[in-house]
Amino acid sequence: MRSPRHVRTSKHGSAQHSSSQHGSAQHSSSQHGSAQHGSSEYGLSQPVGSASATPSRGLSVALACAQGAWPHHDWPAPDDPYVRRVLHLTPPYRGLQDSGADVVVLRCEDPSVSFAELLKAMGDMSAPVIVVTPRRDSEAVVEAFRGGAGYLVEGDYCTCMLSSAVMAATVGHTYLSPTACAALRDAAQGMPGNGQATEQLRALLSPRERQIMELLSTGLGAQEIGLRLTLSEKTVRNNLSNIYAKLDVRGSTEAVLRWLGATSAVRV
Hints:
The chain is an alpha/beta fold. It has helices at 111-122, 138-146, 159-169, 178-189, 195-202, 207-216, 222-229, 233-247, 252-260, and strands spanning 8-9, 15-16, 25-26, 39-44, 59-64, 83-89, 103-107, 129-133, 150-153.
């Protein structure tokens, strides 16, 4: 899939833009995103009235994919409320560690290969990753989720969802498209011998904590869970801290896997 219509890519792979004073795309340059590294970069102006949760400077996204493999032909829109800058990097993703990206979006055919390649290129880089792929099988989803990555199945998301996933990733929300979420649940249900242990583990939680875990396992973050349950975000986070202690886990990704039965139930 080609890059968005408002992005004009030159023969050398660098992106160019027209600009105006009212929300048009603006060209930006980078010392690390040169064409010789197989990368191109473009910037988006920040629209007036953006969501309050959006950083005032907007987000910088590293898009890791082959030429012509853009995740969605209309993404990002010139007036995207979250994304300010996109740096396109082709394999082997040279310059990724120096990109200054807030989030990395990996568009690939086979995440079992490309995700490992991306992590190698990231090195010590701590930016969250979102995988966009046509693969919808449980094995691929679980592998990416265990690695802390969000997962969007092609044909199962819109441009708004992709931008929301990018924004959510910056606050620790592991975003799953509906098909990916279903695949993760199928993987948990298909694991032999975990049913009774998982039920025993769930019994450790209070009714409210179980409600929170059910919502967390669908990919919602603390703020969204608070809105669903009419709780403050702080209260949700306090409950999550208690849940992590009871489940003997270190964070939300491990908690969801434990909750769904996709990992060993209780560590002794």
